[in-house]
Amino acid sequence: MSNIYIQEPPTNGKVVLKTTIGDIEIELWSKEAPKACRNFIQLCMEGYYDKTIFHRVVKDFIAQGGDPTGTGQGGDSIYGEPFKDEIHSRLRFNRRGLVAMANSQKNDNGSQFFFTLGPCYELQGKHTIFGKIGGQTIYNMIKLNELECVDERPIRPEKIISTKVIFNPFDDIIPRNRFAEPVRVVEEKSVKKGVKNFGLLSFGEEAEEEEEQLENVTKDLKVKKSAHDIGDPLLVSKKAVADEKKAELDKETDKKQTEKSVLLEDKNKQSVNIEDIKSKLKKKDEKFEKQQVKETPRIDEKEQKKKETQDEIKKLEKELLEKKRKYSEENKIKQEQLKEKKTETEVFKQYKEDVGKYEHLKNRKMKNAKEDKTIELLKAFKERMFKAKYENNDSESEQSHDEKKSEKVEVETILTHRLDVDEEIKRKVIDANIADHERYDIYDPRNPLNKRKRGESKEVIKQKKNSFLTQNSL
């Protein structure tokens, strides 16, 4: 594994995904795959991956996510269209913990990505590797391999809660505001004039006739006709002035009413929109809190279940070991009993009983038998030494010089002897150049003199051989 890590280039960029499994740190290869890394970092900054699920898990192969729809068919890149693959020779699918872009065909990369849960050699050259999982957070990612799936889809999928960019190698990234509302255009409503229903009045016919006359007069005034063209000048002037005033007043009132109605409608809409937004935000907060409350006990329950299962497994292993030991011991006893039944006779039973009585004594004696013997021999030797010394002293005082003594006495007197070296011998210096028959010669083959002597001796031997051979030939 160390060779694999040495071959990989150094990373430049870091992002942390906060998931329901735990934090996952992703270190990015921004120099080797700049487009994929830029796309991933900007989507993380925009919160694009928040509350997305890992919708596809293939055991010991990959765990895929990054689709906001959760179907595996959605997700867009920051470029507005799919971008090209970025294959690098030093990045290979040879281990778990790598991060790569998911695609349906060549050069079709969007927002979806996947983690490798093992070596994936068949994906080499087909997908862009742009990061790896760093530190001990790889153990959190491996938990995805334990999810229960049906047709590669988890029954209870894990989520990405939020994302955080710790180190951004691209200084020119400007995140888009995905949550900005479109600008509202207020349309000017055409104010419809009210239509008078004269059928409801008892004098409706007369009112209609008067209304028609007034309309005709106003039309004539707009055309700027003189009073002589219309008829009676006095009456026409008075009616015209009155009609103009009424028309102006009606227009002003209509305008004021329309403005008030528009303002009221805008205020009502704004108030309704604000209330709707507040209610939606409250509902979202409540849902998020409920989800967190639900997810935390789920995680706690999972951990408790794991601990319980591990404890049960340990207990079962211990019980199995104990049963195996008991079973093996029982088998040994049974085999011994069977052997005994086959070979048992009256004499053998008696012998066995006798052996059983002294087995424990035998084991004790075997341990200390050798030590006891050596100690006894040492004690006897000491006693003999002391006796020989005292007898020698007594014999010298009595001056017994008998020539004939027993062999035992001679052996005992040897023990009384002591090695004394003359002072002349001690002072005598050994000279290597002086030959001495009582001294051994020291021969060093590394000494050049000895090498020369050895060569001369070989030449002498050769000459002797040659002379011997010549004599025999003659």
Describe it.
The structure is a single chain. The longest helix has 111 residues, at 233-343. The chain starts with a helix and ends with a helix. Helices cover 53% and strands 11% of the residues. The protein contains ten helices and eleven strands. With 474 residues, it is an alpha+beta fold. It is elongated. Residues 180-192, 222-237 and 404-408 have low confidence and may be disordered. The chain has a nine-stranded antiparallel sheet with strand order 3-11-1-2-8-6-7-5-4. Strands 9-10 form a two-stranded antiparallel ribbon. A hairpin with a 3-residue loop joins β4 (56-58) and β5 (62-65). α4 (204-222) packs across α6 (233-343).
